[in-house]
Specification:
The protein is 45% helix and 14% strand. It is of the alpha/beta class and 515 residues long. The strands form two sheets. It has a twelve-stranded mixed sheet with strand order 2-1-12-11-10-3-9-8-4-7-5-6, sandwiched between helices. A two-stranded antiparallel sheet has the order 13-14. Strand 13 (466-470) and strand 14 (475-479) form a beta hairpin. The longest helix has 25 residues, at 424-448.
């Protein structure tokens, strides 16, 4: 059984093998470095080698470059000679080109299979934290979920949640007696924040068929772990939606997977590319949730790796949990950059052979400063490392090539067609329509019931000094005296109602009884 994966050669002449121990892969990690220093290729290499070791991978493809994992590299590539020379330097004698098993996913369903969840699965707590709701607003959201659950109203997509919130607003007077004050201002604030998410594309995230987590943990026929690639090039334009989805996915994995302690290898390795988007302007409650999940999900056999430009992008409490580190070059052009560089160097276990801060500043493209967990989870001494060359294609696939991979996947038939079954929105809409019909019938009945009595009142109206002239489209009145006319109209209006009906029934009853 494979116990570790080779990631590159370290030391002055790259003769010291650097390995990532599978047993400690679920202790999380960091891949950092400035733009153009090789982070994407390092991520590609790690995904390839984890897959070969039988470990499924989930990663976000921000620039579209990682789709090349589905095709083998080529000897005709302009980088072939450079990759061959690198393999010789690090004593990688069995280097060859090979594709990896890949499944493409896309929240918008364009560059991959649609990936969805339901409002109910995400739950009120996570939605409230992602929307940064106040305590009062979060309480109203919980009321909406409770009422929907008690009334059998399925919350599947955004329009379901919006419909239930409207219903809560219409019945807030009655509900406030049971659950406490419900203000229209708080409901409006929730609706506006949901609208922001909807404008960012959240409509595509919520719905059915919902993603089954087991479909991310698959293996191919030869036992290699499936590499699940989320197309995130368009998703990056909606950072809140990106953060919401990835955090939900981590939370679902944590709640669904059983406890396994410290397995020989992880069940899944999860890469957060552009990790700073998860924490930029994030409310403290959200950061606390990420920290909690990162700390506890290790026991479920899931490793989480943050990919970003600088370690400073990661909150300190989370950064302290990242045991495996690959640090590409950091630039130090300003005083602020130099401070970040110094802080990054101080997080590594020193190597007496070189200055860590200087190494981070001067490593070339494809090189990195690495520190991996060793026996008993102790951080290894920092080393300058030349990263392995990738076996798969470097760069994106064409549209036709991507489509061919999608068409061959068993996920195509399962997730491609959206299912919109009856849920809260449809049920409440039907109830509103039925209530409208009942109200219309009652109104028509009330209007028609006074007609037989009209003749009885016409005489009274004539005595009041008002003459009635009728036309096919309207009634016009010639008033001799405005006050008497107004009084007459008031009396007639009252007599046409329930009071008038009771009075007439009494008068007519008395007359017939006398006869």
């Amino acid at each position: 059984m494979i116990e570790d994966i080779f990631i590159g050669g370290g030391g002055e002449n790259y003769e010291i093998p650097q390995h990532l121990t599978l047993k400690y892969t679920n202790r999380h990690g960091l891949i950092a470095g400035a733009t153009g220093t090789g982070k994407t290729v390092t991520l590609q290499v790690l995904a390839e080698r984890l897959s070969c070791a039988g470990v499924p991978v989930f990663l976000a493809d921000v620039k579209g470059d990682l789709s090349g994992l589905a095709h083998p590299g080529s000897a005709t590539s302009k980088l072939h000679d450079a990759f061959t020379a690198r393999a010789e330097k690090i004593a990688l004698h069995d280097f060859s080109y090979r594709e990896s098993p890949v499944t493409f996913w896309d929240l918008f369903g364009k560059s991959g299979h649609p990936i969805r969840t339901t409002i109910s699965d995400m739950g009120p707590l996570l939605i409230a934290r992602l929307l940064d709701l106040t305590e009062a607003q979060e309480g109203i959201l919980n009321i909406a979920f409770r009422l929907a659950d008690e009334d059998g109203l399925a919350l599947l997509d955004l329009k379901d949640l919006q419909a239930v919130l409207v219903w809560v607003g219409e019945h807030r007077a009655d509900l406030s007696l049971r659950y406490g004050n419900i203000s229209t201002a708080s409901i409006g604030a929730i609706q506006r924040r949901l609208l922001v998410l909807e404008n960012q594309g959240a409509t595509d995230l919520f719905g059915e068929p919902a993603l089954e987590l087991g479909d991310l943990l698959r293996h191919d026929e030869s036992g290699r772990g499936m590499i699940n690639i989320l197309a995130a090039d368009q998703l990056m334009a909606s950072p809140k939606l990106y953060a919401m989805f990835l955090l939900w996915l981590l939370s679902e994995l944590f709640e669904t997977l059983p406890e396994v302690g410290d397995p020989d290898k992880p069940k899944l390795v999860f890469f957060f590319d552009e990790a700073h988007l998860l924490f930029d302007d994030a409310p403290k409650a959200l950061v606390d949730k990420v920290e909690q999940v990162a700390r506890l999900i290790r026991s479920k056999g899931v490793g989480v790796y943050f990919v970003t430009q600088s370690p400073d992008d990661i909150p300190e409490d989370i950064l302290g949990q990242l045991g495996n580190r690959i640090q590409h070059a950091l630039r130090a052009f300003t005083a602020k950059d130099r401070k970040k560089l110094k802080l990054a160097a101080e997080t590594y276990r020193e190597n007496p052979q070189f200055d860590t801060e200087e190494a981070i500043r001067t490593v070339g493209v494809g090189e990195a400063v690495t520190s991996m967990l060793q026996n008993k989870g102790i951080p290894g001494v920092v080393e300058r490392t030349l990263i392995c060359p990738p076996q798969s294609k470097l760069g994106p696939l064409s549209i036709a090539q991507r489509k061919a991979v999608m068409d061959a996947s068993v996920m195509q038939e399962k997730y491609q067609t959206t299912v919109d079954r009856e849920s809260a929105y449809e049920i409440l809409r039907t109830r509103a329509a039925d209530a409208g019909k009942v109200a219309e019938i009652a109104e028509n009945t009330a209007e028609q019931s006074p007609q037989p009595m009209a003749r009885e009142f016409n005489a009274a109206r004539r005595y009041s000094g008002t003459r009635v002239s009728r036309s096919s489209s309207r009634r016009s009145y010639n008033r001799k005296d405005s006050l008497s006319s107004a009084l007459s109209e008031a009396v007639i209006k009252e007599l046409k109602g329930a009071t008038g009906r009771r009075l007439v029934r009494g008068i007519l009853g008395g007359l017939f009884k006398g006869r």
